[in-house]
Amino acid sequence: MEDLSGIPGAESWTTVEPVLKGWSSDRKFYVQDQAGRRLLLRLSAGNTYHRKQQEYEGIQRFNGLDFPMSRAVDFGLCGVGEDGEQSVYMLLTWVDGVPLEECLPGLPPEEQYRLGAEAGRILKQMHIIPVEEELPHWEADMQSKILSRIREYEDCPYHLEGDQQVTAFVRENIGLIHNVEKVYHHGDFHVGNLIYTPEGKIGVIDFNRWDIGDYAEEFYKLQIFDREWSIPFAAGKLEGYFGGPPPEAFWKRQALYVAYTSLYSIKWSIPYGAADIQDMMDRCRLALKDYDNFRIYIPRWYPGTDSNILSKRLK
User: Which of the following CATH numbers is that of domain 10-93: 1.10.472.10, 3.30.200.20, 3.90.230.10, 3.40.50.300?
Assistant: First the structure.
């Protein structure tokens, strides 16, 4: 059992259950107190205090917006572990509902599209928040990061047929990352971190990968996750964000981000074993198919196979 001493009100908690879902290194718990209030407790190592404090402040920033999401309740240090160090705790409101990825495929295509459009409008709200930080070297740093990760992929033992055309595409188009609009990212905004609320709305959770960057970069996981779960949702998310079809400049940068992350994900998956490596290779193959080995920059699945649904534009 975790040592929760130091968390105000913890003595009134009647339920503390582990939440095992997700890739985060945080230890997560569903909490309910005597008054019936439902909360999410996240615990992390004491040496993450500064980073977690920034995350908590980022959540508070997003909490100024009006949609269902995890809301900041409390933050600080608690307990003492076996190593003699305290843990960082973050207490957030619990978002009621079911994981969107569990129910989305069973919903009618029209509802999948509607939820995607709602998710896109939510993401747009998040991106409109003015960025306070000055990041004069962001573009140069991002270009360097992308090229470095392409080299890491080339040096790893797993490769796909046709990958040389993809690496060439990345190198030839790296200059597209120039003078981009920088926004606050959720950092992991896809079906796996969205909730289908009892009211039929989109709820947003898991802000632990937040950062600042190109607004277009936030969309590369649309290809990796959303497109696999639901093409109507993926198309709706794009059109909800842009209020219609995305502009050409977006598609070109999106293709660049998808190309490099699809290849790098193979190298990234190596420590997790053969099953994850195969999964990432399959996802990369799908991206290469969708983008015709990156001979095109608008994926074949857009606007989708059901033109009666996906040709709808938001009023």
Answer: 3.30.200.20
Task: Tell me which residue of 27, 36, 39, 30 sits closest to 2, measured CA to CA.
Answer: 27
CB neighbourhood size of 177 (10 A): 22
Tell me: domain 98-310, CATH 3.90.1200.10, correct?
Answer: yes
| Phi-psi category of residue 284: left, alpha or beta, with phi > 0 → left and psi -120 to 50 → alpha | alpha
For 208, list phi and psi in degrees, rounded to 5.
-70, -10
Kindly state the tokens that stand for 79: 């307990």
Other CB atoms within 10 Å distance of the CB of residue 21:
10
Q: What is the pLDDT of residues 172-192, one digit of tens each?
A: 999 999 999 999 999 999 999
Which residue from 246, 231, 240, 245 is spatially nearest to 311, judged by alpha carbons? Answer: 245
Predicted TM-score of the model (pTM): 0.91
Residue type for position 142: M
Residue 222 is given by DSSP the state I
- Rounded to 5 degrees, what angle do the CA atoms 52, 187, 282 make? 125
- Which residue ranges does the chain devote to CATH 3.90.1200.10? 98-310
